[in-house]
Amino acid sequence: MRKIVAFVKKHTILIILLAISILFPQSFSYQSKLNMRVLVTAIAVDKVQEDYEVTLQVVMPQAKAEQGSGKAVLSFITEQGKSISESIQKIAYKIGNTAALSHVSTVIVGNSLLDGNLTKELDYFIRNTEFNSAVMLLIAPESAKDMLKKTQNLEINEAIRLQKVFVYKESSLNGLMMPIVEFMNNSLTISGSSMASGILISNEGEEVLGQSTDKTLESQQSQQQGGGNQNGQESKESSNQQGGESSKEQNGRIKYYNDIYYFKNGKYVNKYDKEDEILGIFLSNRAPNTGELVVQNVKGDFLKDATIGCKFRQQETKNNIKFIDGKPILVIDMAFKDVKINEILNQGQPTPALYEFQAESSQSNIVQAIQERVESCVRLAYEKAKKDGVDILNIGDLAYRQKPYEWKEYYSKTGESYLSGTDIEVNVKVNNFN
Amino acid sequence: MKKQLTKRQVLFLVIITTLANKTQRLPSLISAQLGRHGWLVFVILGLIDVGFVSLALLANKINKSKTCYELCKQTCGIFIAKVVVFVLGAYFFIKSLLPFEAIHDAFSTVLFDNLPWPLYGLFIIVAIILVCIYGLNAIGRVGEPFVYLFLTSFIVLFGLGVSTTDLSRVLPFIDFDVPKIIDACWDFCLWFGGFVIIFMFMGRVKEDDGKMGWPIIIAVLAVNLIMAFGYMVFYGLYENLAADKVNFISMISQFSLLNVDLGRIDWFFILFYQFGQFICIGLYLCLATKCFSEVFGIKNRVLMSFIVVMAVYLLDVFLFKTVGEGVSEVSTIVKYVHPITVIGLPIFFIIIACVARKKEKNAIFSNNLVKFKLLTGISSKNIKNFIKDKKVYKSCDQICEGEKQ
User: Fold this and answer.
1) Shortest Cα distance from A414 to chain B (angstroms)?
2) What is the CATH number of the domain that holds B76?
3) Cβ of A26 and B174 within 8 Å?
C-alpha cells in the first residue's frame, strides 16, 4: 500500500494526463449539454409509397422539471425520407437538437413494411452502432405511427419502456420480446424462420375482448364511420376531447395476447391470432416462464366438465431431435414445476370434496388435461406454420446441430421442402402438483 | 542491470496483454472467416503459445540475470545481438497497433463519434509517451493494482454474456473444415504470441535470479481457454451477425440488463476494462523504445519514446485511415514473419542460453584448473589424464579435495 501511495505521489502528472485524455475531450462538444439533446425511446417506421415515414417518440428534458416528479413530456415527431437514416436526420434538423438514439428500446413497424423483405428494411438498426443490440421489434396491425402515438395513453413508465413490459409479458407466458438482432439472425439460419410480436394499444372499452386484433380494428373502424358520417367536426373535437381526457386518465391498454407474425427468410407469411396458437408458441419458447394455464372439460370423480385455472412457478422446455426412418422428429420436453390450482368451476353440485381434493385420480385427470392442452396448443402452432411452409420450431437448425450427418443425408434428399417430412412429439411433465 | 519488475508484476502484465488483445475485434474477424468453429483458433494458437512460453521461461531459467541483448552479445556478437533486438523491437511496434486500434475504435466510433480523432488522439499520445518515458517500473506498478479492476470488469461482463447466450448455436463441433481452420490460424496469429515480452523481462526481474515460473504458463493457458469459451458465448449471442459486431467486450453484455432499471451499468466495466489497452500500448511501445535505443545507441529515452509513439500515431492517422483495416492489412504481411518471432526466438534463446551457460562453466573450470595446477604442481599433461579419470569439479576446493582422496 505504501509503495502504491509513493508511486502515485511520484507520478502524479502521468495520472492527471491520463485522466485528462479520457475526460477532457467531452468539453469540446456542445452537444454534451443536456438541453441540446432529445432522448428517443421508441421509433415507428411506415412505408409511404417508396419513402419511409419515421416517427420518433421523444422525451424532452425540461430545465424546470422537478426532480422525482414522475412526469415527462412525450412528443412524437414525424418525417419522411428515402431511407430511415435520412428521415431521422431530417427530424434532428427539424427539432434543432441531437437525437440521442442509444435509449431506443423499441422499434414498431407498420403493416406497410410487410409487403417487402423486413430484414432488408431493418438493416439500419443492425448497422448503426448507436442502437443497443437488444432493441425490440414490434409490428403494428396498421400504421406504426398511430400505434406509437397511442403510447401517450399509457402510464409514462410503460410508454417509454415498452421493452420491459414485453420482457415481463414473455416471462409470464403472454408475450414475445423479440430483439431485432435475433429476428434478423433467425432469418439467416437453415430454417430461415423468424417471429415478432404484434402490438395493439386501445383505450379502455375499445378492445373486443377475447377476439383477435383484426376484430378490434374492424369494430373501431365501424364505430368511427358510424359516428363520423353525421357529425364530422364534432366527433373530431369530442374525440380530441376524449383523447385529451383519456390521456389525462391514461386508460390505454396493451392487448393481453398480441398477434405473433411469422416470416420466412425475412418475408412475411402469416400470423397467429388465435389464443391457442399464440399460447403454443409461448409454451415452446425456451425462456423459463411462470404463468397461468386454464384447462376445460375436465372430468373424473366429482369433476364434471370443470374449468380449472392453474398457476405454475416455472416452465422449462428442452428440444431434442431424433431420426425415425431417416426423418427428423422434434421431441419437446416440457416441465411445469410447482403447479397450483387457483380455481375450479365445476358443473355439478358444490361438494366438500372440491376443497378436500385428495383423490389421486382427480389429480391425475387434471394433470392429463394440462398435458393434452399444452400438446394441442403446440401442435396447433406447428401445423399452421407447416402448412405455410415455415419451420417455426427451427427443426432444421436443431437437426443440423444435434445430428449433422443424418441431417445432411435427409436434406440432400429433400432440399428446401424438408419440412413436410418432419413431425413433433410433445412430452409434458407436471412436477410437484398442488 | 537494475531490476525493475517483480515476478508478480510480470505475471499481471502478461495477463493484461494476453487478454486485452483478444477481446476487441478478434472474435468478429474470426467469425467472418470461420463462423461457429472460430473457438478452435483460440485453442490451437493458445496451445502453441503455451508450448513456446514454456521454452521462453526455460531460456530465462538457464540464463543468469542477463538481459536478452547482453546474452546475444556474449554468445553471438554485437551484430547478431542488434539484429535480434531489432526484430523484437519491430515486433513490439507492430503489436502495439492492436491495442492502439482498439482505443481508436472505442473512442472514435462509440464514445466521441462527433470529435476528430487526429485532434483528441494527441492527448492519448502524450499520455503514452509519458508511460514510455517512466519505463517498466511505472508500468509494472500501475499494472499491479489495476489488474484486479481489469479482471473484475472482465468477469462481470463475461458473466452477463454467459447468462443470456445460446451455446447450442456453436454446435455441431465435428463438422469443420481443417484447411479453413489452418488458414484462419495463419491469418490471426498476430493476435497471439504476447508472451514474447518475457524476453524483454529477462534480467530485469527481482527475486530468485529472474525465474518467472509456472504461474505464467498457467495464466497464458487459462486466458486462451477462457477466450475460446468467450468466443462461443459471443457466437451464441449473435451467430450470423457476429462479424458485424466489432467490439467483443462491449457487445456480450447487451442482452443481459433488460430487467434492470438502472440503464447500461455494464458501461462502467467496459470503460475500466478499456483502460487495460493503455497499459498494453504503453508496455509494447516502452519495450520497442528500449530495443531501438539499444540497436541505434540512442540513450535519450525521451527522444526515442517520442519518435516511436509518434510513428504509431502517424501510421494510424495517415496510412491506416479506416479503423480496423489497418491491422488487417498488416496481419496479411506479418503472418509470414510472425512464426519467426513466436517459434524461432524461444528456440534461439534456449540455444544461446545453453551456449552461454556452457561458456561460463568452461570459463569457471579453466579458472579452477589454473588454481589447481598452482596448488598441486601437476603438469598440464598429467592434469588431462587426471581429468579423464575423475569427474569435472566445480571449484578449486573440490579439485583439491579430490586430489587428497
Assistant:
1) 20
2) 1.20.1740.10
3) no
Cis preceding-peptide flag for B172 (omega within 30 of 0): yes
How many CA atoms does the CB half-sphere of A85 hold within 13 Å?
A: 11
Decide if B94 is inside a domain: yes
For residue A19, pLDDT beyond 90: no
Rounded Cα distance between B224 and A59, Å, is: 45
- Residue B155's contacts (CB-CB under 8 Å, 6 or more residues apart) are none
- Whether residue B398 is predicted with pLDDT greater than 70 in this model: the reply is no
Q: Touching check for B141 and chain A: CB below 8 Å?
A: yes
Average pLDDT over residues B15-42: 92
B127–A3 CB contact, under 8 Å: no
Phi, then psi, of A4 in degrees rounded to 5: -65, -45
Give B271→chain A minimum CA distance, Å.
10
For A424, the grid coordinates are 413433433
Q: Looking at beta carbons, which residues of chain A come within 8 Å of B110?
A: 129
Task: Select from A194, A40, A41 the least CA-distant residue to A122.
Answer: A194
d(CA B241, CA B34): 13
Inter-chain residue contact B112 with A164, CB threshold 8 Å:
no
- Average pLDDT score, chain B: 84
Above 90 in pLDDT, residue B396?
A: no
CB B295 within 8 A of CB B279: no
Band (pLDDT 50/70/90 cuts) for residue A42 is very high
Helix (H, G, I), strand (E, B) or coil at A291: strand
Distance in angstroms (rounded) separating the CA atoms of residues B158 and B19: 13
Q: Where are the beta strands (DSSP E) in A232-326?
A: 252-254, 260-264, 267-272, 289-300, 303-324
Flag if A126 and B278 touch (Cβ within 8 Å). Answer: no
Q: How far is A332 from chain B (nearest CA, A)?
A: 16
Q: Is residue B50 part of a domain?
A: yes
Share of chain A above pLDDT 70, in %: 85
CATH 3.40.50.300, applies to A275-433 = no
Question: Under an 8 A CB cutoff, do A25 and B174 touch?
Answer: no
Residue-wise DSSP of B269-337: HHHHHHHHHHHHHHHHHHHHHHHHHHHHT---HHHHHHHHHHHHHHIIIII--STTHHHHHHHHHHTTT
Whether B171 and A184 lie within 8 Å, measured CB to CB: no
Q: How confident is the model at residue A103 (pLDDT cuts 50, 70, 90)?
A: confident
Task: Please indicate if any CB of chain A lies within 8 Å of the CB of B405.
Answer: no
b/e burial code for range A144-180 (CB count within 10 A of at least 16 → b): bbbbbbbbbbbebebbbbbbbbbbebbbebbbbbbbb
Q: Are A322 and A333 in contact (CB under 8 A)?
A: no
Return the DSSP state at A346. -
| In chain A, domain spans | 30-213+251-260, 275-433
Question: Hey, of A135, A181, A183, which one would you mutate to test binding to chain B, going by the most B CBs within 10 A of its CB?
Answer: A181
Q: Which amino acid is at B37?
A: H
> With contacts defined as CB-CB under 8 Å, which chain B residues touch A184?
241
Residues in chain A closer than 8 A to B144 (CB atoms): 4
Our count of domains for chain B comes to: 1
User: What's residue A236's pLDDT?
Assistant: 41
Contact, B353 vs B198, CB < 8 A? no
Residue span of the structural domain in which B232 resides: 7-337
- The distance of B233 to chain A (nearest Cα, Å) reads 15
CA distance A260 to chain B (A): 21
In a domain, B350, yes or no: no
